[in-house]
Design goal:
Blueprint: E1 3-4, E2 8-10, E3 15-18, E4 26-28, E5 38-41, E6 44-47, E7 55-60, E8 74-79, H1 93-96, H2 98-101, H3 113-122, E9 127-130, H4 139-150, E10 155-160, H5 166-172, E11 178-182, H6 188-195, H7 199-211, E12 215-222, H8 230-244, E13 250-254, H9 269-281, E14 287-290, E15 300-301, E16 308-313, E17 316-320
Parallel strand pairs: 8-9, 9-10, 10-11, 11-12, 12-13, 13-14
Antiparallel strand pairs: 1-6, 2-3, 3-4, 5-6, 7-8, 15-16, 16-17
Helix pairs in contact: 3-4, 8-9
Length: 342
Amino acid sequence: MLKEAMFYEIYDNERVRCLECRQYCIIKKGRYGVCGVKKNMDNKLYSLVYGKPIAINLDPIEKKPLFHFLPGSRALSYATVGCNFKCLFCQNWDISQMPRDKYHRIEGYDVSPEEMVQLALKYHAEVIAHTYTEPSIFFDYAYDIAKLSDKYGIKNVFVTNGYISPKALEAIRPYLHAVNIDLKGWSEEYYRKIIGAKLSEVLDSVKLHKKLGIWVELTTLIVPGWNDTEDQIREIARFIRDEVGPETPWHISRFHPAYKMRDYPPTPIETLKMAYRIGKEEGLRFVYLGNVPGDETENTYCPRCGRLLIRRWGFEILENHLVDGKCPYCGEKIEGVWNQEK
């Protein structure tokens, strides 16, 4: 169904400016925003994907990945088509880039916010994850789902590229409990050529999420030849330490060839290990490697005594020794959201 966007402004007699993501598209009548799912219709901005999810799944929260937010919980995960980025390596390109690659094609099921929340209740999902593509491009839908689900005690998380506008983020803040933000690299050139965005906007967004009290975890996909130098990785680690906090979990993920970067090799394990080492050298308390199942860097260890606290295999928790969010061996507080009541 069509839904008028919550945040936009009239730019002139022929154009509107979308205020829901940091692209701030100025859109002529009959035209679309960068995401392909917001359209100017008679100088009003409408979402074309409200109530139109393309994918709905029940996932472990660890798949988001969120390792310090309600571990072991179930997340009803969904997305619509579209994205405000054009990542040339996108793993979900078939849905994220559908409007761009398929001449404004919109596909999906008819699922109202009320029906989405009922699905979460039916499958005993403690969390609803707005994920797979980019939540800010279906913000109006996500907002209504989050607001409604909050009444039932269901938590909401965004898996996001960080390009939500401050105005939209502040609006959904009462119902948004955690985010995993992609910090894709440390180069404006990389963001411009490969991503279609600005690094500076993402950095500002990460800091704003933290300031608003939302639990933040960060993910960096290491792409060979683009963001895999020691200097860039160290700068990312220092930003996390100094601007977000050393307690912020950093997920370093392995690239696999996809979409328009199929001719690139997978990230060497040695590069991931280097990034892990740098994160620890720079004082980050929790660094994890992704897409490397079975590696000990999936586990959570106490930063003080080094004892194993949570053992993982892929997205499955094998052991969890935390007691009231603390190490049972030395009493060190382990930052995160560990109880549903919080």
